[in-house]
């Protein structure tokens, strides 16, 4: 009966959520987030996958539902919308990182850090509307090395956070190419160059991972529960 009622509730919310009044939408998103979050915290320590799934589901509802609610705001300018979106993403990033640290999940903390990376990308696009490949590499690659250094510094004290920072560093390395893929004015000739740079980066990462395979395989074995 509990499973049936839960499925029915989720279906009703999923179908009629967009026609709910704005206060009811906020209440629905907040309720689902807290219910799933509380359920995730109550799961036993030995069931890390279940805890991560429940907490991730609650945070996903919060991120998607919150962003949808943000788009329903009326009477705001494009400049105000930009800052509202940045503020919401920063709040979501803090919640993802906090909840991921609470249940010691590297994946959830990684998604939180990537929320922050999206904020950084939005600020770049706002400040520099005309982006070139060399400038984007300069804006992202040093940050990825900084994240690798931070991951190494905390890998003994905060294993989950260390894994999240390392995954974020790998994501930031290919961020310049991803930003250019989303450009609407990119031509086919330039797209080939971007794809070539992305392929070269992936090949370089593969070679580095192969060279240091003994170190990172041992790290994974020592942190199987992260």
Automatic annotation (TrEMBL):
Q: Which domain of life is it from?
A: Bacteria
Which species is this record about? Answer: Paenibacillus aquistagni
| Record protein name field | DUF2157 domain-containing protein
